[in-house]
Structure formats: C-alpha cells, structure tokens
Amino acid sequence: MKLDLSNESLLTYKALASPVRLDILRKLSYKHLSVRELAEEMNLSSTIVLMHLNKLAEAGLIEFERVGHNKVSKLKVDHINVNFPQEIYTAFDVQTTDVPVGHFTNFSVKPSCGLAGKENYIGKVDNPAYFMDPERMSAGMIWWTEGFVEYQFPNYLARNDTLQMLDLSMELGSEFPFSNNVWPSDITFSINGHAIGNWTSPGDFSDTRGKYTPLWVPDNVNQYGILKTVRVTDHGSYLDGQPFSEASLDDLKIDGDTVTVRFEVKKNAKNRGGCTIFGKGFGNFNQDIEMKMFYS
Q1: Locate the HTH arsR-type domain: which residues (predicted)?
Q2: pTM attached to this predicted model
Q3: What's the CA angle centered on 230, arms 229 and 233, to 5 degrees?
Q4: Are 122 and 140 in contact (CB under 8 A)?
Q5: Which of 221, 149, 161 is nearest to 189 (CA)?
Q6: Which of 59, 157, 240, 288, by CA, is between 20 and 30 Å from 80?
Q7: What is the mean pLDDT of the chain?
Q8: How many Å apart are CA 193 and CA 238, to the nearest integer?
C-alpha cells in the first residue's frame, strides 16, 4: 500500500493509531480469524472487536470473507510505504532529463523477462531477443530476473558549469512470475561504470492495482513499485535521504557527452529476485527514469 501526506491517507493513519487495532493486525498476520475468535483471544466483546475490524476494513488494511456461518478477517496488505514530498534545492541551477524505460541502449537479461506497452505486451514474454525489438521504445514497464539494463543520459552541462549534485529517480520492484509481494531482490545501481550501491527491493507487488497501470494488465502481475531516489554528492551517496555508500561525484568522472546508468541483478547477489522498472503510464508514479544534475 502506498500512502502520502495528503488528506486521502488520513483514514489509514487513523486506523493504525490504536493499540487494539495494531494487536488485531499482528494476530491476523499469522492466520485468518473470525470475530468470535478474535474476541476470545483479546478478551473483548464481539461488538468492540467488530467496530475495530470495520475501521481497518474501511482503511483497506483487511478484508472479510464468509467461511460457513463465520465472518473471517484477513490481511489485505503486507507492507505500507509513505511517500514524503521531495525537497527542492534552489541554490543551484538544475538540468532535468527524463528517459523512458524502453529507451535502454544495452542489456543482458535472463527470463522471466519482458516488456509491456500501453495496450499489450511487446513481443513475446520470457524471450530476451524482444528487448531489441524496435517497439521497445514505447515500453512503459520492463522486467527481468538476472542481468542488467543500461541507459544513456545526455550531459548538457557546459565547460564552465560545475556539477554539485546528481539525483536519479525511478520506480522499481522485484520480478517474480505473476507476482509475489514478499520476494526480496538486490538491485545494483551503477553510473558511468561505477557501482553506487545495492538496494533490496522487498517484493513484486500486486496487492492493489497500480494507480496508472493500464486496465489490460492482469490483476495478478506486477502492478507498481517503490519510488527510489539515489543522490550522489561530493562527499558520498544517499538513498531516499539516508547514507547509501561512499561513492562520490569524483568517482563518476562525468566529463563526456553522456552519463551511463545501469540497473543490475548480479549473478552472485544474495537475493536474486529480479527487477521491474515502471515508467509513465504504469505503477504509482507517472514518471520515466529521471536524472537531475544540479550545477553552478
């Protein structure tokens, strides 16, 4: 589930702001329970338990189903991500470039893999040859299990411009045939051949439909990812504002006409759970792969 700081997310925050409801969620994480079973375990009346369950259901955290004569509760989500507004830096000029996910310039991938456009899959799934199909340029989502996909970003900075900071923003998830909401994968980010760091994606999500994912995409396949922002400065790198690695701008040697960006699931990764990249028209963030170059 994706939340933000808008009023639309208040219902979920309010549902979580209760020790009783948190206890209910913990119990439901182990097994499905009826109202009567929950009431007995928590030493509460069925009326009180049902009131709390209804609040959790209204927030989209649980759902009910009938099992015989019993009304059984079960979890609807297994994780929640909160998206905070990104801070805008005004001290520097900024050059922003968006590259669609299908505009990769190099790749080496292994199935399961594929590409999807606004109206259908592009070519045949699980056949890496279609990653060279000219129609790949219209892809809004790509996925693979092992290997890499590489992009070239233009470097428009003039000779007298000094690069102060670089941001790379994209929506990512793991890759599992159909979907698996708990499927960790170690994804390595590299810029100009220098590894910035590894991020472990927690899963390949289909608990809810992606906000922008086309209706033709089945409910049981990847629906959305997590928006990640890698920031490289002169004193190290950060992921979503937290220290990431010691890689700095000097390590990237950005002095040519292009900047090479690679997303990779290495053969020797601890969690080889694949990678899915969501672009415009897919996922929860209607954006392509975005690079911002802050300069003075």
Answers
A1: 1-95
A2: 0.72
A3: 130
A4: no
A5: 149
A6: 288
A7: 93
A8: 18
